[in-house]
Design a protein that fits this description.
By secondary structure, the protein is an alpha+beta fold. The strands form three sheets. Strands 2-1-6 form a three-stranded antiparallel β-sheet, with helices on one face. It has a three-stranded antiparallel β-sheet with strand order 3-4-5, with no helix packed on it. The chain is built from three helices and nine strands; from the N terminus they run H-E-E-E-E-E-E-H-E-E-E-H. It has one domain. It is elongated and about 45 Å long. The two termini are 26 Å apart.
Length: 134
């Protein structure tokens, strides 16, 4: 799993979250940085309110949260979501002696991004793809 810091970089680079059940998210800057939540149709759902979207925590008596503004939540994409976001640029994922390499074709050039985990390698490639699209 990528960390909150990498998720924040992806958000700042322009990654847009369209929430769906199973999505992971964090609530930074509220002393919850180390907690990762999962959207679920039973316990944590996105609701449309007149003031905008909110994430509701249903029946979570252990948390002092009823809901948080959607803009306060930070999407933490899973490995499969990161790979899907690379779209047609994605070529391969390879295990190496030190971690993983993700190869993409970007603007007609093959590029490789290396990291300790597949998620981090996908995220590195996606950060560069988002920068190229700006």
């Amino acid at each position: 799993m990528i960390g909150v810091e990498v998720a924040q970089l992806l958000h700042q680079a322009g990654l847009v979250w369209k929430p769906a059940p199973g999505d992971r998210f964090a609530i930074p800057d509220r002393d919850l940085d180390d907690e990762v939540f999962v959207l679920s149709t039973m316990t944590i759902e996105v609701y449309a309110m007149p003031e905008g979207q909110v994430i509701g925590f249903n029946g979570t008596t252990e948390w002092a949260l009823d809901d948080v503004g959607f803009d306060e939540a930070l999407w933490v994409p899973r490995e499969d979501q990161l790979r899907d976001l690379l779209g047609g640029t994605f070529r391969s994922l390879r295990r190496t002696d030190t971690g993983y390499d993700v190869e993409v074709t970007l603007l007609g050039e093959s590029r490789k991004y290396s990291a300790a985990t597949p998620e981090e390698a996908y995220a590195a490639a996606l950060l560069h793809l988002l920068a190229a699209c700006r």
